[in-house]
Structures are given as C-alpha cells and as structure tokens.
Amino acid sequence: MDIRVNDRLVMKKPHPCGSREMLVLRTGMDFRLRCAGCGREFLVPRLKIEKYIRQVTHQEEHTHV
Fold it and tell me: Which has fewest Cβ within 10 Å: 9, 13, 33, 55?
C-alpha cells in the first residue's frame, strides 16, 4: 500500500472522538497519525492500520515554475 507523509486516510472505524479522518505524520514499521477531529497524535503498527483503511487521499505536490 502506497502511503506517504501528509496523506489523509479515511478509516473504517472512527476514533473515539467520532472522526474517521487521519493525517499521516510519519511512515515506516509504525505510522504516526493525527486525528482530524480532535488533533490527538498516536503511533499504530503498519500491519494493524492497513486493515482499517478505507480510502487514501494523496496530497498534491506543488511545483514551482
């Protein structure tokens, strides 16, 4: 699965605050995610989080002319 820093993830299960949207802050064996609803940051193992991802939205890279 191609997940990069600053991607937005829509999850199958909501965070306890009710938001299903997460922002990726770090990738690797663990993901550091920030909840878009309450702003809480947490680490989750890659294998666990990949099961709960419904949609990945990549951030568009800006090019300078």
Answer: 13
